[in-house]
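fyi for ur records
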Amino acid sequence: MKKRIAVGIERFDEMIRDGYYYVDKTMYIKTLLQKRGAVNLFTRPRRFGKTLTMSMLKNFFEIGNDPSLFEGLAISREKEICERHMGKYPVISISLKNVEGLTYEEALGSMKTAIGDEAGRFYFLETSVKLNEIDRNAYHQIYKNEIHGKTKYSIEDSILEDSLKTLTALLSKHYGEKVILLVDEYNVPLNKAYENGYYDQMVNLIRKMFNAGFKTNDHLFFGVLTGCLRISLESIFTGLNNLKVYSLSDPRFDSFFGFTESEVDEMRSYFGLLDKKDKIRDWYDGYLFGHSHVYCPWDVSCKFRQNGAGFPT
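which gave:
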Protein backbone atom coordinates (compact mmCIF):
# COMPACT_ATOMS: atom_id res chain seq x y z
CA MET A 1 0.00 0.00 0.00
CA LYS A 2 1.09 3.52 -0.75
CA LYS A 3 1.81 5.77 2.19
CA ARG A 4 -0.82 8.38 2.92
CA ILE A 5 -0.34 12.09 2.31
CA ALA A 6 -0.50 14.11 5.51
CA VAL A 7 -2.51 17.31 5.47
CA GLY A 8 -2.73 19.33 8.67
CA ILE A 9 -0.49 17.03 10.72
CA GLU A 10 2.05 19.13 12.58
CA ARG A 11 3.63 16.55 14.90
CA PHE A 12 6.70 14.82 13.55
CA ASP A 13 6.30 11.73 15.75
CA GLU A 14 2.70 11.27 14.61
CA MET A 15 3.66 11.57 10.95
CA ILE A 16 6.42 8.95 11.24
CA ARG A 17 4.64 6.48 13.54
CA ASP A 18 1.42 6.54 11.53
CA GLY A 19 3.27 5.90 8.28
CA TYR A 20 2.54 9.10 6.38
CA TYR A 21 4.66 10.12 3.42
CA TYR A 22 7.39 12.36 4.80
CA VAL A 23 9.52 14.69 2.72
CA ASP A 24 12.83 14.26 4.51
CA LYS A 25 13.94 17.58 5.99
CA THR A 26 16.07 16.12 8.77
CA MET A 27 19.33 17.52 7.40
CA TYR A 28 18.01 20.83 8.69
CA ILE A 29 19.30 19.57 12.05
CA LYS A 30 22.88 19.31 10.77
CA THR A 31 22.76 22.71 9.08
CA LEU A 32 21.29 24.31 12.17
CA LEU A 33 24.02 22.88 14.38
CA GLN A 34 26.69 24.11 11.97
CA LYS A 35 25.34 27.61 11.28
CA ARG A 36 23.29 28.42 14.34
CA GLY A 37 23.55 31.47 16.51
CA ALA A 38 22.62 31.54 20.16
CA VAL A 39 19.12 32.54 19.01
CA ASN A 40 17.81 31.83 15.50
CA LEU A 41 14.72 33.37 13.89
CA PHE A 42 13.17 31.80 10.77
CA THR A 43 10.50 33.79 8.93
CA ARG A 44 8.41 31.93 6.37
CA PRO A 45 4.81 32.14 5.04
CA ARG A 46 1.99 30.16 6.59
CA ARG A 47 1.69 26.45 5.75
CA PHE A 48 5.33 25.96 4.89
CA GLY A 49 6.13 23.40 7.55
CA LYS A 50 7.46 25.60 10.35
CA THR A 51 5.55 23.82 13.11
CA LEU A 52 6.44 20.36 11.79
CA THR A 53 10.09 21.40 11.70
CA MET A 54 9.97 22.58 15.31
CA SER A 55 8.36 19.28 16.30
CA MET A 56 11.17 17.44 14.52
CA LEU A 57 13.76 19.40 16.48
CA LYS A 58 12.04 18.55 19.75
CA ASN A 59 11.86 14.86 18.84
CA PHE A 60 15.53 14.77 17.89
CA PHE A 61 17.17 16.68 20.72
CA GLU A 62 14.97 16.00 23.74
CA ILE A 63 16.13 13.72 26.54
CA GLY A 64 13.99 10.59 26.55
CA ASN A 65 13.25 10.80 22.83
CA ASP A 66 12.52 7.86 20.55
CA PRO A 67 15.56 7.39 18.25
CA SER A 68 13.61 5.00 16.04
CA LEU A 69 11.67 7.97 14.63
CA PHE A 70 14.76 8.92 12.64
CA GLU A 71 15.71 5.47 11.35
CA GLY A 72 16.22 5.56 7.59
CA LEU A 73 16.10 9.35 7.44
CA ALA A 74 19.02 11.43 6.19
CA ILE A 75 20.18 12.61 9.62
CA SER A 76 20.58 8.99 10.79
CA ARG A 77 23.58 8.70 8.46
CA GLU A 78 25.32 11.51 10.35
CA LYS A 79 26.62 9.18 13.06
CA GLU A 80 28.75 11.72 14.92
CA ILE A 81 25.89 14.23 15.15
CA CYS A 82 23.45 11.58 16.34
CA GLU A 83 25.83 10.22 18.97
CA ARG A 84 26.69 13.67 20.25
CA HIS A 85 23.32 15.41 20.13
CA MET A 86 20.36 13.06 19.74
CA GLY A 87 18.37 12.81 22.95
CA LYS A 88 20.93 14.82 24.92
CA TYR A 89 19.13 18.05 25.92
CA PRO A 90 16.13 19.32 27.86
CA VAL A 91 13.81 21.00 25.37
CA ILE A 92 11.20 23.67 26.02
CA SER A 93 8.80 23.85 23.08
CA ILE A 94 6.06 26.48 23.07
CA SER A 95 3.59 27.50 20.37
CA LEU A 96 2.04 30.97 20.57
CA LYS A 97 -0.48 30.37 17.78
CA ASN A 98 -3.41 30.33 20.24
CA VAL A 99 -2.31 33.39 22.25
CA GLU A 100 -5.03 35.82 21.33
CA GLY A 101 -8.10 37.59 22.63
CA LEU A 102 -10.34 40.59 22.11
CA THR A 103 -8.69 42.23 25.12
CA TYR A 104 -5.19 42.18 26.57
CA GLU A 105 -6.50 40.37 29.64
CA GLU A 106 -7.85 37.53 27.48
CA ALA A 107 -4.60 37.27 25.54
CA LEU A 108 -2.62 37.36 28.78
CA GLY A 109 -4.66 34.39 29.99
CA SER A 110 -3.87 32.55 26.75
CA MET A 111 -0.16 33.24 27.23
CA LYS A 112 -0.32 31.89 30.77
CA THR A 113 -1.98 28.75 29.43
CA ALA A 114 0.73 28.26 26.79
CA ILE A 115 3.48 28.61 29.41
CA GLY A 116 1.65 26.64 32.09
CA ASP A 117 0.86 23.72 29.79
CA GLU A 118 4.51 23.41 28.77
CA ALA A 119 5.68 23.75 32.38
CA GLY A 120 3.34 20.89 33.23
CA ARG A 121 5.44 18.53 31.13
CA PHE A 122 8.20 19.01 33.71
CA TYR A 123 6.13 18.11 36.79
CA PHE A 124 9.09 16.11 38.10
CA LEU A 125 10.80 19.39 38.99
CA GLU A 126 8.51 19.76 42.02
CA THR A 127 10.17 16.74 43.64
CA SER A 128 13.61 16.82 42.00
CA VAL A 129 16.40 16.09 44.47
CA LYS A 130 18.69 18.15 42.22
CA LEU A 131 16.73 21.28 43.14
CA ASN A 132 16.47 23.06 46.47
CA GLU A 133 13.29 24.34 48.08
CA ILE A 134 13.65 27.76 46.47
CA ASP A 135 13.99 26.15 43.03
CA ARG A 136 10.97 23.93 43.54
CA ASN A 137 8.90 26.88 44.71
CA ALA A 138 9.96 28.82 41.60
CA TYR A 139 8.62 25.99 39.46
CA HIS A 140 5.38 25.88 41.42
CA GLN A 141 4.88 29.59 40.82
CA ILE A 142 4.87 28.91 37.06
CA TYR A 143 2.82 25.74 37.18
CA LYS A 144 0.01 26.98 39.40
CA ASN A 145 -2.74 24.88 37.86
CA GLU A 146 -5.67 26.76 39.29
CA ILE A 147 -8.72 28.20 37.58
CA HIS A 148 -8.63 31.98 37.98
CA GLY A 149 -11.57 33.53 36.19
CA LYS A 150 -11.25 32.30 32.60
CA THR A 151 -7.54 31.65 33.04
CA LYS A 152 -6.35 28.09 33.62
CA TYR A 153 -3.17 29.14 35.43
CA SER A 154 -2.85 31.82 38.12
CA ILE A 155 0.70 32.85 37.22
CA GLU A 156 1.59 36.30 38.45
CA ASP A 157 2.55 38.68 35.66
CA SER A 158 6.08 39.19 36.99
CA ILE A 159 6.56 35.40 37.15
CA LEU A 160 5.28 35.06 33.59
CA GLU A 161 7.81 37.59 32.31
CA ASP A 162 10.68 35.51 33.69
CA SER A 163 9.07 32.11 33.06
CA LEU A 164 11.21 31.04 30.09
CA LYS A 165 14.44 31.89 31.86
CA THR A 166 13.26 30.22 35.07
CA LEU A 167 12.31 27.01 33.29
CA THR A 168 15.64 26.85 31.45
CA ALA A 169 17.52 27.36 34.72
CA LEU A 170 15.56 24.66 36.55
CA LEU A 171 15.82 22.11 33.74
CA SER A 172 19.53 22.77 33.31
CA LYS A 173 20.10 22.26 37.03
CA HIS A 174 18.03 19.06 37.08
CA TYR A 175 19.66 17.45 34.04
CA GLY A 176 23.12 19.03 34.19
CA GLU A 177 22.77 20.04 30.52
CA LYS A 178 22.00 23.28 28.74
CA VAL A 179 18.50 23.73 27.34
CA ILE A 180 17.09 24.16 23.84
CA LEU A 181 14.24 26.70 23.69
CA LEU A 182 11.78 26.54 20.79
CA VAL A 183 9.08 29.20 20.25
CA ASP A 184 6.73 28.67 17.30
CA GLU A 185 4.46 31.32 15.74
CA TYR A 186 5.95 34.07 17.88
CA ASN A 187 4.23 36.83 15.88
CA VAL A 188 0.62 35.61 16.24
CA PRO A 189 -0.02 37.36 19.59
CA LEU A 190 1.32 40.58 18.10
CA ASN A 191 -0.90 40.33 15.03
CA LYS A 192 -3.98 39.74 17.18
CA ALA A 193 -2.97 42.53 19.55
CA TYR A 194 -2.65 44.97 16.64
CA GLU A 195 -6.09 43.98 15.35
CA ASN A 196 -7.73 44.45 18.75
CA GLY A 197 -5.98 47.54 20.07
CA TYR A 198 -3.56 46.33 22.74
CA TYR A 199 -0.40 46.04 20.68
CA ASP A 200 1.82 48.09 23.00
CA GLN A 201 0.95 45.92 26.00
CA MET A 202 1.64 42.70 24.14
CA VAL A 203 4.93 43.98 22.71
CA ASN A 204 6.03 44.90 26.21
CA LEU A 205 5.15 41.44 27.58
CA ILE A 206 6.82 39.45 24.80
CA ARG A 207 9.91 41.68 24.82
CA LYS A 208 10.36 41.03 28.54
CA MET A 209 9.79 37.27 28.15
CA PHE A 210 12.21 36.96 25.23
CA ASN A 211 14.89 39.17 26.75
CA ALA A 212 14.81 37.08 29.92
CA GLY A 213 14.71 33.74 28.09
CA PHE A 214 17.09 34.39 25.21
CA LYS A 215 19.44 37.23 26.16
CA THR A 216 22.64 36.27 28.02
CA ASN A 217 20.97 33.12 29.36
CA ASP A 218 23.81 30.91 30.60
CA HIS A 219 21.46 27.91 30.70
CA LEU A 220 20.62 28.07 26.97
CA PHE A 221 22.29 25.79 24.41
CA PHE A 222 20.45 27.56 21.61
CA GLY A 223 17.01 28.89 20.76
CA VAL A 224 14.84 28.83 17.64
CA LEU A 225 11.88 31.07 16.85
CA THR A 226 9.58 30.85 13.85
CA GLY A 227 6.98 33.21 12.49
CA CYS A 228 5.45 34.62 9.36
CA LEU A 229 7.19 37.98 9.58
CA ARG A 230 9.84 39.85 11.46
CA ILE A 231 8.53 42.57 13.74
CA SER A 232 10.81 45.58 13.29
CA LEU A 233 8.96 48.65 14.57
CA GLU A 234 9.00 48.81 18.38
CA SER A 235 10.90 45.59 18.09
CA ILE A 236 10.49 42.78 20.59
CA PHE A 237 14.07 41.86 19.75
CA THR A 238 15.61 45.05 21.11
CA GLY A 239 18.80 44.12 22.92
CA LEU A 240 19.04 40.60 21.51
CA ASN A 241 22.51 40.99 20.01
CA ASN A 242 22.81 37.18 19.84
CA LEU A 243 19.98 36.86 17.30
CA LYS A 244 20.47 35.46 13.79
CA VAL A 245 17.64 36.13 11.35
CA TYR A 246 17.05 33.76 8.42
CA SER A 247 14.57 35.46 6.11
CA LEU A 248 13.11 34.37 2.78
CA SER A 249 16.09 35.79 0.91
CA ASP A 250 18.73 33.99 2.98
CA PRO A 251 20.18 31.01 1.05
CA ARG A 252 21.52 29.15 4.08
CA PHE A 253 18.25 27.37 4.89
CA ASP A 254 16.40 27.98 1.64
CA SER A 255 15.44 24.36 0.92
CA PHE A 256 14.27 23.29 4.39
CA PHE A 257 10.87 24.98 4.43
CA GLY A 258 8.55 24.03 1.59
CA PHE A 259 9.09 21.39 -1.11
CA THR A 260 11.87 21.73 -3.67
CA GLU A 261 11.32 20.67 -7.27
CA SER A 262 13.34 17.47 -6.78
CA GLU A 263 11.24 16.58 -3.74
CA VAL A 264 8.04 17.13 -5.70
CA ASP A 265 9.44 14.98 -8.52
CA GLU A 266 10.06 12.17 -6.02
CA MET A 267 6.46 12.49 -4.85
CA ARG A 268 5.16 12.39 -8.42
CA SER A 269 7.16 9.21 -9.05
CA TYR A 270 5.98 7.57 -5.83
CA PHE A 271 2.31 8.39 -6.41
CA GLY A 272 2.29 7.74 -10.14
CA LEU A 273 1.77 11.32 -11.28
CA LEU A 274 4.69 11.56 -13.69
CA ASP A 275 2.63 13.30 -16.35
CA LYS A 276 1.68 16.21 -14.07
CA LYS A 277 5.05 17.94 -13.77
CA ASP A 278 4.32 21.01 -15.87
CA LYS A 279 0.88 21.53 -14.36
CA ILE A 280 2.20 21.21 -10.81
CA ARG A 281 4.99 23.68 -11.53
CA ASP A 282 2.68 26.20 -13.18
CA TRP A 283 0.19 26.13 -10.32
CA TYR A 284 2.30 25.68 -7.17
CA ASP A 285 5.92 26.74 -7.84
CA GLY A 286 5.40 30.37 -6.90
CA TYR A 287 8.10 31.01 -4.30
CA LEU A 288 11.80 31.79 -4.34
CA PHE A 289 13.57 31.26 -1.01
CA GLY A 290 17.22 32.28 -1.26
CA HIS A 291 18.38 30.43 -4.39
CA SER A 292 15.68 27.70 -4.31
CA HIS A 293 12.38 27.52 -6.15
CA VAL A 294 9.95 26.21 -3.56
CA TYR A 295 6.46 24.73 -3.68
CA CYS A 296 3.87 25.33 -0.97
CA PRO A 297 3.59 22.00 0.93
CA TRP A 298 -0.06 22.52 1.83
CA ASP A 299 -1.19 23.08 -1.77
CA VAL A 300 0.87 20.22 -3.18
CA SER A 301 -0.12 17.78 -0.43
CA CYS A 302 -3.83 18.52 -0.85
CA LYS A 303 -3.64 17.73 -4.54
CA PHE A 304 -1.51 14.63 -4.09
CA ARG A 305 -3.91 13.39 -1.45
CA GLN A 306 -6.58 13.40 -4.08
CA ASN A 307 -4.30 11.09 -6.09
CA GLY A 308 -4.18 13.51 -8.97
CA ALA A 309 -7.81 14.60 -8.97
CA GLY A 310 -8.40 18.28 -9.44
CA PHE A 311 -5.34 19.11 -11.52
CA PRO A 312 -6.10 21.40 -14.45
CA THR A 313 -6.35 19.63 -17.76
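The first helix runs from residue 12 to 17. thats all i got for now
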